[in-house]
Amino acid sequence: MNQYPAFLIIAPLLAACLIASAAWLRRSLCFPIAVLGLGTSFLSSLGVAARVLTDGHFQYRMGGWAPPLGIALEVDYLNAPVLVAVSGAALVSLIATRQIIEREQGPKAPVFYTLMLLAVTGMLGMTATGDAFNLYVLLEISSITGYALTASGDRLAPLASLRYLLLGTIGASFYLLGVGLLYMMTGTLNMADLSHLLPALYGSDAIFAAFLLILCGIWLKAALFPLHAWLPGAYSHASHASACLLAPLMTKVMIYVMLRVMFTVFTPAYVFEQISLEGFVVTLASVAVVAGSLMALAQRNLRRMAVYIVVAEVGYMVGGAWLGNQTAWTGAILHLLNDVLMTLCLFLAIAALAGRMETTDFKNLKGLFSTMPFSMGALVLGAMSIIGVPPACGFFSKWFLLKGAIEAGRFDFLAALLFSSLINVVLFFRLFECALYSGDDHHGPGEHGHIEIHEAPLSLVASLWAAAAGILAVGFYSGSIVNNFIKPALM
Amino acid sequence: MESITGLILAKYNYWMYISLMMVGLYAMIAKNNLVKKIIGMNILQTAIILFYISIGAKKGATIPIIMHSEGHGHEAVHAVQYINPLPHVLMLTAIVVSVATLGVALALAIRLYARFGTLEEDEINDQVREAP
């Protein structure tokens, strides 16, 4: 019971090592071990969340060493739901993409599972850790495995992956440099310790430089608009299996890290009163939302469209975090959780469709509602959530963000959000229009009477519907998520 | 004048790491050859490692090993006499990270060379434009 935070991270790490050795004995063992690892992780995250609900913030000391000397995992109201979302989404996307991995990777499938599990280990570690340097190491673990995962894909995947690697390394190096400055000024790397020691130094230029460096590093990794150049290529050329794992999780975990740095390492008092960057950052976020939506509108391919939607969504969360009032923060955190589900649903649906056609160009999508009704049904739910139609979860976080923008008097951000929602309506209804009409006048349904259903593999469709059900469930229970986790987190 | 020499000479370690960092960033941005970009990336990482190493140094201090010979075991440790080992230990991890990143980057470069027959970025871009 008390060991849950350790299990959360050790289970996928251990499973990754086991898979690498099990591959020598029997390849059929690898997938069950991977599911076991991520399943344990998911159950532990539920245990952690349950404990946070009763006890509030708690600490797990790795090896029994007390911080600030030792490294502690800190779980509180902010990261418990993120842990559940990350481990749950990773499990669903692993189960969903099994067939894709086995088909594309063949004898190298165990290596792919190992990379996936290591990437998830890094992301969960980043979410749980209470140590700024430890966060860097885990960031690099998930990034390096992420580069390797995105490198397997179509002809251009290695090029996109190398660009991702170069930019990602600059981001991580900036973060490391910022942490180095913080260490130089305070002599500690522990986040809780930093938050005690920093207020006395808030006037210092070195601390300001450290904050900016860390922030730039995180934004580069999170693909905030002008720094997003790596994302579209990396996620649209990679194998569908990698995209389904990385696209929903990586940027969102980086947004969580940004929130952690803003709220725990530094304080809102520093971020919003001492230095006044919020005006600039919210403008930047508004530009990111508009630019991401417009670039999505310019695409003629479903997958390319989806990656630009991810870019726009990053703008939503960064803007919400920097509007600087409780409502907007609630919206940003809720949107982080929702976006994991929405992006997962969108990318799984794309993987399902792509398994039945050469490319996901819009012209290939004709008549899909009749041939792949289940995948398209889930895609509709995901699209509703991204647009922000009420029963789906996306509506609630968008509502909080809009209210927060009004409270802060930032009508440019408000306009950007509304504009992006309208663009999303156009994006998805254009898509549905393509998919509703068979486009084949000679063999219309009237002549044949019935159309053969040609669905994606069951595991993929089932996981896709699990994600879609998650969207509805989080939508229905968003009130209790806000009251039980997000409100206490912002106290 | 005094303050300018003070700014440059007394803080030469910062100037060194900043120059190295800029060399690395310049190579990553401006070079056309992918291997040169990768070398630039490595210089950038090394610059940050040097920064960490330099903040652990102290004037006149020795390596942080406490002598446990006869009669020395229970003396008080004067932290001033030893350089700070923590940044050095952190950089062991960072070196491992940079080696791993370099390895992945070079593996990708090999894959790109096999696929496009060149490592010049503009030539690769031309090939991509011709046959996407």
UniProtKB/TrEMBL annotation, chain A:
Subcellular localization is given as:
Cell membrane; Membrane
Q: Has UniProt tagged this entry with the keyword Chloroplast?
A: no
Q: Which residues cross the membrane?
A: 6-25, 32-53, 77-97, 109-127, 133-152, 164-186, 206-231, 243-263, 275-298, 305-324, 336-355, 376-401, 413-437, 458-482
List the keywords (alphabetical).
Cell membrane, Membrane, Transmembrane, Transmembrane helix
Domain named NADH:quinone oxidoreductase/Mrp antiporter transmembrane: residues: 131-423
Which GO biological-process labels does this protein carry?
A: ATP synthesis coupled electron transport
Where does the UniProt entry say this protein principally localizes?
membrane
> Know the name of this protein?
Multisubunit sodium/proton antiporter, MrpD subunit
Species of the source: Desulfatibacillum alkenivorans DSM 16219
TrEMBL record, chain B:
Q: How does it sit in the membrane?
A: Multi-pass membrane protein
The portions of this protein that span the membrane are 12-29, 38-57, 89-110
Note the Pfam families from the entry.
Oxidored_q2 (PF00420)
Query: What superkingdom does the record give?
Result: Bacteria
Keyword Transit peptide listed: no
Q: Which InterPro entries match?
A: CPA3_antiporter_subunitC, NUOK/Mnh_C1-like
Q: Where does the UniProt annotation locate this protein? A: Cell membrane
Similarity-based family: Belongs to the CPA3 antiporters (TC 2.A.63) subunit C family.
Q: Any idea what this protein is called?
A: Multisubunit sodium/proton antiporter, MrpC subunit
Species source reads Desulfatibacillum alkenivorans DSM 16219
